Amino acid sequence: MRIKIPRCALLKISLIYALSGIVITLCLDQDRVLCHLQDPIKGITLVFSLVYYFFFCRKMMSLQRIFSSTTIIVGLFISVDYGLCDQFRCRGQEVSGHTTTMRGSWGVKAIWTFVYVGALAAFAMFFTLLEAHYTTEQQNMCQIMASQQNSFLYTVSRLVSSRDIRRRGSEEEGGRLLHVTDPDPTIKPKHIPKPPILETLFYIHLIAFFAILSMSWIDTLPGIGRGLSPAELYRVVEHGLMCHFKNSDNCSNISTRGWIFLIAYIIFSISVLNFLSISESAVFTVATATVSLPLSVIWWSIYKMDVHGRFITWSPGVTGELICALLGLPVVLLGLGLLVRSHFHDTQPCYLTMQPPDVQCESSQR
Length: 366
What we know:
15 helices, globular, single chain, two-stranded antiparallel ribbon, two-stranded antiparallel sheet, 63% helix, mainly alpha
């Protein structure tokens, strides 16, 4: 199998993915981050994706996309607002005040919460780095046209739509905000094939697997990490693998949950990378994934995990989390719909959204 992404870039992407997974696992282990904060804080991943876009991506984001992404963020905040404040309820379960205070001081939990946010920032960076390797010849054509001398004036006016730019450019004589020329027919767009989905996922998870194994036995800080010796690590991994094929008392029903999680994770990984390859936008990909946050709140308002029976049971109830999720979900879907519309509008070929000066003059005279 051939790696289409450069090895150094693939190694960096995989290590960031492994680091985010390790830190997130450490934060969620033993409820170092309060249980009612674990899911709502995940919405900040979209904020980090937007920040990375403005700092690292060379493409300009239209006002429509900015407004759509902001609408999704507002909808997410409405959906998880009640859960952020209710520390006595987590994923459909009632949590006693004694349980929340016996697992560490508030200062330690605050530190772990900030570490958790940093891990989510690394997870958002993973998609941003992958986005750089999934570009089309259309965007390359845009970059070639933009690099032609005296073709464009890079001003803040690029943030507005092309229709407004053409209108204002035709109205202002001698001092147009945007000077448009025909693309040079001799310049051919450079076709760069996209990396294969399955091979890319295979190498990312292969590198991340060995990175996790190399760090899982290291006791990085006192009381943090597993601190396992190589022999103990081998026994733990062997026991975990065997529990996927047998249902014993010390396996905690892993044979049922493990396979469900594995199948769901494989489907999610392939789907999200395919979506990133099609949309070519990390912000769009993360925004679509964040729809699961209000849906998960609705799910845990209808079902409840039976701790002793280790199964999910039907237990519907009207709660504050359910009301907020039902109010925020339409806002999230509205923002996602606007983002889809603006995405298809912005991904049209560049030369179709631009007209030569003579066409602009004719349209202005009419």
